[in-house]
Structures are given as structure tokens and as C-alpha cells.
Amino acid sequence: MCGIIGYIGYDEAKNILIKGLKTLEYRGYDSAGIAVYNPDYNQCLVSKCEGRVDKLESKVADVKGKSGIGHTRWATHGEVSDTNSHPHKFGNVTIVHNGIIENYESLMNTLGVASKLKSGTDSEVVAALIDKCYEKNPVDAIISSVKKLRGTYALAIMFDDEPDAIYAVRNVSPVVCCQNDSGCYIASDIIAIAEYCPDYFVLPELTVAKITKDKIEIVDFAKNFVEPEMSAVNWDIKNSGKCGYPFYMEKEIMEQPDVIRNTLHKKLRDNIPDFSSDNVDESIFAECKSISIVACGTAMHSGLIGKQLIEKNCGVPVTVYMASEFIYCEPIISRDTLVICVSQSGETIDTLEALKYAQRQDAKILSIVNVRGSVIAKLSENVIYTDAGPEIAVASTKAYTSQLVTFYLITAKMAYMRGCFNSEGLSSFMDELKKVPKAVEEVFSNKEKIHHIAGSLLTAEHAFMIGRGLDYPALLEASLKLKEISYIHSEAFASGELKHGTIALITKNTPVIALMTQKYLASKQVSNIKEVQSRGAQVITICTTSLKSFATNDFIELPDMDDEFTVIPAVSVMQLLAYYVSSDKGLDVDKPRNLAKVVTVE
Ligand code: M6R
């Protein structure tokens, strides 16, 4: 959480920093700040404030200088305030930090600086530490300082007496770097600086980058030069704004048909799933005796659907774990277990820790990741990239869909390799999967109706969702979407489970969304709908055309397709439903309260 940025070159730093911070705001939006070296004062001048980057921008009109660093914060240690905003300055040293310094209190005591630090953060002490270690050699000071840190960090550092360079160092938390004729750039995410140069590299962990206006030099902690591994942006930079949509979330929902087509295009050869472009050792699919899927939030919900698909089609037992619980619940995994870690950002600390735990148990690892070069991707033996493109809205939509498509592809590959699908079975599965983008487009053509139905949820305080089979994990995701962006308390239940307690909460006019796409479960779902209706619930049915006769008055229709594939169009409908509720309530859809897109704290 938190985003950092840095620039040094021939242009005004402020403009580049502010623009980049706006893009990085998805990482946290409690406060923002920049430090720019001002030659008239021979020092870095810090401007920072609680609130969004827009507010900061209005305060920095007069800031001048050609080098600087910036930060957007998601508060962990210390309240949301001007003082706790970054950058932090101590003596000669100014820093911005993304991560958590676990031993900040003991460092403060050892250095004897407690009374001099102004903020309540875990970060400010790092500026003090580097300042104390500084003997006219910035790289030495940085190396000896970060060796004393416990925790995670991406740091951008400036020294008042060395105005021609900025420095960066990282452990776990990301830093990417790029350069053009106008200067050199660093950021937490390439999306903040890609417009300046599409070729970039991820700063290797535990190395220090010295960034001057014409070059970036990297050394490891033994001061050996390190050659970085270059990457190129693989999405259309021109398409990275809101492109006329009021919010990124709507744009990202609407991108889903193309994202699915793109994934299928990249991962199919002769109509057979093929992960060789990602260098996946495909024997893992044939050899594993069990699978553990580990992820958080939306990514975990994709895993719950993956579980049903794999168990049904491949006969391999699958357990889905919340990554935050995984290492504490003594999971039964061994070298015969395939552990699949799912993460859009590739940075989620709980998923990362689970991955490391699984590696210690000798399990085979496959990660499904969207962000190339992210720490989870780097650490995994096998990675399937979802390539959904940058997802900016905090609420995940297209990344989730691309994770689902990846699970369909893994299922098909595994079933084929294990002889559960013959060639015909495989082609009919793939043919059905290829119909999904069109089905999603069809539901989007009905968006007026979805918008209209969203109106009935605007004043709701609570909502319930019920479904069976694959519909149930799809509703867990739908319910999370509604909660996080509309602030309506929502719970999804397996329909048969509701009457074991929770039905007590259904009273007159309680909204209940009933998803019905599984024909073989329709009659049971209809009974469950009647049960809540007879307690006064207002039921909105989302169902396929062939089940329309069972729908309630308020209903949204999904195109008919094989039951196994309907969850993707169904979730797309419910993403839009949540979106309309949030936007019609006048909420900040892309940046819901208290959240950040990248969760790097346990
Ligand atoms: O980056 P990750 O996929 O690892 O993030 C995991 C969750 O934090 C994430 O899926 C979260 O639940 C969504 N942003 C909610 O929409």
C-alpha cells in the first residue's frame, strides 16, 4: 500500500510527480506529498497534506525544481494527518516509503531520536537512520541503514547536499524505473511513468539505484554493479485513462469481453490451452495429487469457482484457502500438492507469505498474476499472467474475470492431460468458453435494465444473495462488490443454508438477489426463493433465458449457454449492478473509503 514516485531530469519535477501520483492513488489516498530540490534554498522542500492529490496540487503551484520524490499514503502507523504524510525529512535526508518497518520503535530508541521525530509513522525513523549513517557517501549510508531495517520497504531518498541524484532501494515492495531524453523516472507501478518510456525494469530486491538525469546505476549490497532485466509495457498506453467513462470501474467492466478474447487468443494453440508462452512446466497439471488455491478477496472468489470446475472435470481434490489464514492452519500440503496462488497485483502480503510457506513444504507452485515482474510472480516457479491490463479501480472486475478464464483453461488442460477429456470433450468445452465474450456483451446491451433495477437497492441498508452450485461462489464475489463500493451490508448464502439461521434477518422488503443459472438446481432454488418471499423479501432474480419462467417480477436475463459457463456473464451483471448503486448514491466508485487496491500489510 502507498505509492512512491521519483523524477530527476530536464523538466519541472512537480508536474511529473503530481501526474504520476494521481495514477498511483489506487494504492492509497489518505494523504499525498512531494519533495522537490530547490537550488535557491540548497535543499529539498517538502509540501504535503492530508487528502487527495488534487488537494496537494492546489498547494504546490509555486514549487520549482528538476528533481523530486512523491508519495500517496494508505495509513498504517499513525493517523491520517498532514504531519504523518510523506515525504519525511530528517537533517540532510528526505525519504518516501512504501511498506512497513517492523522495528521502527527500537530503531528510534537506539538512535535516540524519539523526541526529534515529528510524525507517528514507522517511516520517519528511516530518514533519521540514513542521516545518522551518512558520511558523504549516499550508497554506503543507504546500505548500512537498510541492513538494520526489519520489514518491507520501497524507498526513494534525496540528500540535500547531493542534488544531482535520487536513490531507490527495495525489499518486497515494488520499484520500477525507466528513462528517456528528458530524464529518469521511478515509481511503485509502471502505469505512473509508462507514458515517458514503455521500456522499463523492476529494480531488483536488495540493490540500490542511483538515479541521475541521464542514467540509472544499480549496485548490490556488496557494491557490485547489477544489470537490470528490461521489460516492455504490453498494454496500450493511450488506452490507460478513463477513456470517457466517469469511473475506471465502469471502463474496466466494459473491457471484459476484450480481456477474455485476448486471454483466449494468447493461451490457445490449436484449440488446446497452452501456457508455454509463460514458461509453465505443464507436467504440474498431470502429476499433482491435490490442489490448494490460496488468495484473498476477489482473487479467492475466483479460486472457489476454479475448485468446482477442477473437481468436477478433473477429479482432483481442491481446497481453497484465505491466504491470511493459510500459514496458521497447518494446511496439508506436500510435494504432490500444486499450490495455486492467485493475485491481481502480485503484491498481496498474505498471498506472498502463503507462497513462501508452500515453498518451504516443497509444494509445486503456480501463480496466476496480472502484474508482470511483481514479487509473487518473481518468486513463483510457474506463473500464468492474466494480462488483463492495468486495473485502476479498487474494486476488481476485469482481473477477476481473467482469473476465472484462466481457471477454465487450467481445467481444460488438466482434464485433457489426465484423460478426463477426450479431444471431443476438450473442443466442446473450449467452444463453449469462446462464447463467453459475446454473452457478456449481450448482458451489457441490457445495461439500462440493470441500472433501473439498481434503483431499488439505493436506500437498502442490507441485502442478501442466494444461489446454488456455481452460482454461490459467484454471489460471494457479487456481494463483495456491492459492499465495498456502495456500503450496503450484503451477505451471500448457499440458498439451502439460509434457513439454518440467517433467514431470521429476512423481513418485509429486505432485498434478496437470487441467481439462477444452474438448470439442474432450478427447482430447489425456486423453493428457496419462495421461502424468502413468504417472509416479505423483495426478490430480484438473475437467471438464464430458459429459466425465465421461474423469475420474479424484478429480473435480469442472461443468455442461455452451458451451465458451467454462465457465471462469467452473471458476475458481469452484478458488477454493473453494484457500480450503478454506488455511482447513483454519489459515491467515489473508484476509491471506496478505507480501502487500497494493493494490500501489503498482514
Ligand atoms: O492483488 P490481489 O488480487 O492479491 O488482491 C487481493 C484482494 O485484496 C482483492 O482481490 C480485493 O478483494 C479486491 N480489490 C476487491 O474488489
Summary of the model, kept short:
This protein has 602 residues and is α/β, with parallel strands linked by helices. The chain has an 8-stranded antiparallel sheet with strand order 3-2-4-1-10-9-11-14, covered by helices on one side. Strands 5-6-7-8-12-13 form a 6-stranded antiparallel sheet. Strands 18-17-19-20-21 form a 5-stranded parallel sheet, with helices on both faces. The structure holds 5-amino-5-deoxy-1-O-phosphono-D-mannitol.
What does this structure look like?
The model has no long low-confidence stretch (mean pLDDT 96). 56% of the residues are buried. Helix content is 34%, strand content 24%. It has 602 residues and is of the alpha/beta class. The chain is globular. The strands form five sheets. The chain has an eight-stranded antiparallel beta sheet with strand order 3-2-4-1-10-9-11-14, covered by helices on one side. Strands 5-6-7-8-12-13 form a six-stranded antiparallel beta sheet. The structure holds 5-amino-5-deoxy-1-O-phosphono-D-mannitol (M6R). 5-amino-5-deoxy-1-O-phosphono-D-mannitol binds at residues 296-299, 343-345, 348, 351, 394-396, 484, 597, 599.
